[in-house]
Amino acid sequence: MGNLGAIDEGRRPYRPYDSIKRRTSGVQMSLIAALNNLQSQRGYLTEKDLRDLALERRVPLYAVEAVVSFYPHFRTSPPPESRVAVCRDMACHLAGSDGLCSTLEQLLAGQDAEVGTVSCLGRCESAPAVAINDVPLDGSDVDRIVTVANRPETAAEHAIAVGTRRWALDPYESEADRYGVIRRLRGGEALDVIATLNASGLAGCGGAAFPTGRKWQLVAQQEERTKYVICNADESEPGTFKDRVIINDLPHLILEGMMIAARSIGAAKGYVFIRHEYEAERERLAAEIESAQKVGHLDDSFDVEIFTSPGGYILGEETALLECMEDRRGEPRNKPPFPGQAGLHGKPTLINNVETFAAATAILHRGASWWQSAGVEGCRGLKFISVSGDVERADVYLIPMGTTVQQLIEMAGGVKDGKPLKAFAPGGASSNFLPADMAATPMDFEHLAKAGSMLGSGALFVVAEGRDMLELGANVLRFFRNESCGKCVPCRVGSEKAHRMLEDTLAHGGKRAQLELLEELSDTMHQTSICGLGQVALGPVLSVVKHFSEDVAKHVSDWESDGATERRRE
Length: 570
Ligand SMILES: Cc1cc2nc3c(=O)[nH]c(=O)nc-3n(C[C@H](O)[C@H](O)[C@H](O)COP(=O)(O)O)c2cc1C
Ligand code: SF4
Ligand code: FES
Fold this sequence. Notes:
- 42% of the residues lie in helices and 13% in strands.
- The chain contains 24 helices and 14 strands.
- The strands form three sheets. Strands 1-8-7-6-9 form a five-stranded mixed β-sheet, sandwiched between helices.
- The protein binds flavin mononucleotide, iron/sulfur cluster and FE2/S2 (inorganic) cluster.
- FE2/S2 (inorganic) cluster binds at residues 87, 89-92, 120-121, 123-124, 127, 129, 238.
């Protein structure tokens, strides 16, 4: 039988559960943790590993295989010396990742290296993003990629350098001031946490904008004694990387937010669910947890563990995340019940995004009225936005909510190479594209929804004049097709059919009737998909059809003949 605990010296042990203070020691390791430990021994899982694990766990072999086959992180064949993963999603696509992939395949031919494609690595500002043996690198320097691929043990020396910045969200001037809210609460101050969050109007920053105070209240009202707090740090949507920066720069605000939440809802256990590509950020959080324990900010009343995700965009969906943490395939659950009623192990569970916890701490320190007055144009609060694509300084920006798209593009140095703006997507891959003449729209939930798109988790993707929008729409759709978990037939089959149809149109030309079919398919997927992925998958492509008639006409011979675009615009 394989040694489930032993780990090769040279390899970094993969630790799905990274507990600083293991109150759970003695409890059997999760199946996903055990699989990861096994994989870390020789880089892949053998059939014997799986059989031994099934025997040890007293579960059928198919149950273990079902988990292994779902997560892209698990390998069942020996890995090459060098695994080169190239992202080909929106930002990287614009930065030439398709060409980079072919170039690397040629340059590394005959070597013990595997050049493969991968979904968004959360490094869209360094597009085209590449990872070698899971270490993120800037793909614009091909020579360096080849050098590292030949000597992968040096990858860490070439990793994208990361500094830390001070942000206006942080209410603490110095380290000694940190954890001020939790100290005040412990000191007996009568701060009504939930009422303050409700008064501030803070909305969840993970995409759905659910009112945070109301969510905390709902979980607090549950009568179960065991409850959980989970910080969702899975961030995997193309164009989205602000959580990575927040974890790096403001881990104390996230941790304090989780501690306050736990106290407010009555939870003793918390988890941070983080994508495995964010190894440096995992370490940063682990260090913060350790230091908060040493200083005594984090006490026996609350235990926090870091759970490293075995990969896949769908795991960011809150119920898929729970399935994963419960050792199953990460397929979303039907709702209701919502996680706040029956979440992890059936217990009430508060799930919030990284930024939501950080903002909650700042609001509780400075007061609800500070947050309300922090926005502009009648909008509330501050917002971290990932800015990527055809822009001079792709990066994360903290803006007053209500800042216009145009102003934000100017903050980011303008459109790349001084070109005119053609289009933008204000909320990452799942948000609809809007044309340049809508760039005066304020970045906030209501204004962008009225304009026909959405803020989502806050990811402005900039497209310069000269780009083919139908091609870009197909790129976004490919991401959703690849990341569909396959549970709902309309999403699994519909995203594949729609993508094939678009690829065919791009390669050989198409007819208007085909694009009209996409609208029907989108309606069906919207009505019948369990989760947001299937519901919005065709939205970006349809927004291209709606707003970028000229690009559609390039590929669809009978497109403009009946003025369909004009009618759609009405
Ligand atoms: C396909 C899909 C992926 C998601 N990915 C994330 C994610 O990476 N991070 C996140 O916080 N929320 C993500 N969400 C939203 C979560 O389900 C959930 O609404 C959120 O974590 C709640 O936190 P909030 O109220 O603070 O926004 C995703 C939703 C869907 C449908
Ligand atoms: S909509 Fe798609 S991603 Fe979501 S549960 Fe259904 S198949 Fe999975
Ligand atoms: S890293 Fe390529 S799109 Fe995000």
